[in-house]
């Protein structure tokens, strides 16, 4: 369980690192300018943005399209409030699955490395049996 600002910052970093390892490119590259509460990534080159979001949604996760001039170029992920490890793993799994379905590569990292990145942000004592 993540709570407070520290949890949001740590969870955002886990999502950012995992999706980057999976081959997705952050829309805003500079940490100084990038939000930790709303993360944005470029759509994989081989996907239709509407179909990408629709398929991720069918897997149980809601992501948003970019706004204004970013519409159709990047998707947004909300990283606020109470998010469990299971929530984040479902998010990462869904996005990675849809990327792989569309023939994207994972930057030379194994898919296991992608998920280890998420798990490394939660200490074992924070993982409760009834989590999620």
Fill in the keyword field for this structure.
132 residues; mainly alpha; three-stranded antiparallel sheet; 4 helices; 41% helix
**Regions with little confidence, pLDDT below 50 for 5+ residues:** none
Q: Based on Cα principal axes, name the global outline.
A: globular
Radius of gyration: 14 Å
Number of helices: 4
Structural class: mainly alpha
Number of strands: 3
Strand content is: 5-15%
Give me the side-by-side strand order of the main sheet.
1-3-2
Helicity level: 40-55%
Say what oligomer this is: single chain
Give the SSE order as H and E letters. HEHEEHH
Largest sheet properties:
3 strands, antiparallel
- How far apart lie the N and C ends? 9 Å
Mean pLDDT, rounded to whole units? 80
Give a structural overview.
The relative contact order is 0.21. Helix 1 (4-21) runs parallel beside helix 3 and helix 1 (4-21) runs antiparallel to helix 4. With 132 residues, the protein is mainly alpha-helical. The protein has helices at residues 4-21, 49-58, 85-101, 111-119, and strands at residues 38-42, 64-65, 74-78. The mean pLDDT is 80. The protein starts with a helix and ends in a 13-residue tail after the last helix. It contains 4 helices and 3 strands; from the N terminus they run αβαββαα.
Task: Lay out the secondary structure.
Blueprint: H1 4-21, E1 38-42, H2 49-58, E2 64-65, E3 74-78, H3 85-101, H4 111-119
Antiparallel strand pairs: 1-3, 2-3
Helix pairs in contact: 1-3, 1-4, 2-3, 3-4
């Amino acid at each position: 369980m993540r709570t407070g600002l520290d949890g949001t910052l740590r969870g955002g970093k886990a999502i950012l690192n995992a999706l980057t390892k999976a081959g997705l490119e952050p829309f805003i590259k500079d940490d100084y300018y990038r939000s930790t509460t709303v993360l944005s990534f470029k759509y994989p080159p081989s996907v239709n943005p509407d179909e990408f979001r629709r398929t991720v949604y069918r897997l149980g996760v809601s992501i948003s399209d970019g706004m204004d001039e970013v519409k159709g170029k990047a998707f947004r992920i909300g990283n606020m409030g109470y998010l469990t490890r299971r929530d984040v793993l479902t998010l990462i799994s869904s996005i990675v699955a849809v990327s792989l379905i569309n023939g994207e590569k994972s930057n030379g990292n194994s898919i296991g490395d992608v998920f280890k990145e998420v798990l490394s942000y939660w200490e074992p004592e924070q993982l409760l049996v009834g989590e999620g």
